[in-house]
Write a structure and sequence with these properties.
mainly beta, 1 helix, Jelly Rolls
Length: about 140
Amino acid sequence: MRATAALSALLLGLVAAAAWPASATRTYTTGQFVVTCTSTGQVCKPAKRLTVETPRRGKVTSVRYTTSPQHCSALVLQVVRKGRVLATSHRIEAGDQTEVFSTSIAVRKGASTLGFRAKGFLGGCNTGRVGSWGGKVTVTVKLRG
């Protein structure tokens, strides 16, 4: 009986350890979206928001942004939290594009909300302000062990 109880406890411990590997990563996505800017100028507001729900602390290690097919001028993607820019992509030219860039943005256990903004450049359909932008943003979070 003791051997059975000890074996059961060992198996439960192994199952729990397998469920939460030390180097676990998770991905979160906005899905396809369009933001109509209410701001004037080259930084579009409001930001597109994404809430990540994690079982423990971690870091956003990468951001993948795929532009909308209607993407008609150059921009950079800014990752923001509480109005502060935490990371910025390289310049993304007009056309159907995908940009992946590395980050090291801390997220807490539970819900953390990130914002994404487009900062535009004159040219193409941009005549002095960003009117709208969109696409899909996917973030990868590496959980702490």
